[in-house]
Amino acid sequence: MRKLKLSVLVIALFLMFGFNANAQDANTILKNMDDVMYSPKDMTGKTKIILIDKAGKEKTREADIIQKGTDKRIFRFTAPSSQAGIAVLSLPNDVMYLYMPAFGKERRISSSVKSQNFAGTDFSYDDMESKPNSEKYTPKLLETEEGAYVLELTPISKKSSYSKVIMKVHKTHFYPISAEFYDKGNRKIKEGISVYKKIGNYWNAQEMSMTNLKKNHTTRMIMSDVKYDTGLTDDDFTVRKLKQ
């Protein structure tokens, strides 16, 4: 009986420490990914947006993007003329603003509408937010594949439209490779793929695509003219700048 109790204790300790090690590994992986994605002091670039419908028909848009640190970003359409000037400002503490030139004023985006698609793309306002993943999700390491870690990310905020995100992270360089997004009914609703390229000292998301599985509609974002550490300041990320 004593040996049995000792065996049960050993198994319990093994499971407990094994679980804690797994949780720590998952947190470390996600933190490493954030460090890669937000390692520059700031970034500027141009984005070509290609919208592809279920018939394969394409529409093209263009945008400028600027970012500072982990929590400040402006994404602004520059073409076509019908979209030019539409912009989103992402700030700390989950603050986001949308500017529509046709109305001439900004509108703060509430948490309840962050699940909506941004300007006809397959990226939601939540997807466009500048915020470290380690602050948005609780991670769990599902498995280790050849060349990638597979994480299950559970949203910390109850207001998120996702129940979970299954993400593959590059095993060596820690940038995101792909992501599957699930709704509250645990149905897979979107798939995302990223292609990263190193520019100088930093890994850059050269191309990102998001596919809405229900609508069979895809958005591709292709980055160009990327520049890092140009000296952007907090004054570049204000509502006044958003409206310019």
Number of strands: 13
CATH topology: outer membrane lipoprotein receptor (LolB), chain A
In total, the number of domains comes to 1
Strand arrangement, major sheet: 6-5-4-3-2-1-13-12-11-10-9-8-7
Q: What's the CATH C level?
A: Mainly Beta
Mean pLDDT: 90
**The CATH superfamily title:** Lipoprotein localisation LolA/LolB/LppX
The sequence of SSEs as H and E is: HEEEEEEHHEEEEEEEH
Give the radius of gyration: 20 Å
Classify the helix fraction into a percent range. 10-25%
Contiguous low-pLDDT stretches (5 residues minimum) are 3-21
- How many separate helices? 4
Shape: globular
Beta-sheet strand percentage? over 45%
CATH architecture: Clam
N→C terminal distance: 77 Å
Q: In terms of structural class, how would the helical and strand content be classed?
A: alpha+beta
Largest sheet: 13 strands, antiparallel
Task: Give the topology.
Elements: H1 2-37, E1 42-52, E2 58-68, E3 72-79, E4 87-91, E5 95-100, E6 105-108, H2 125-128, H3 133-136, E7 137-145, E8 148-155, E9 164-170, E10 176-182, E11 188-199, E12 202-212, E13 217-228, H4 239-242
Antiparallel strand pairs: 1-2, 1-13, 2-3, 3-4, 4-5, 5-6, 7-8, 8-9, 9-10, 10-11, 11-12, 12-13
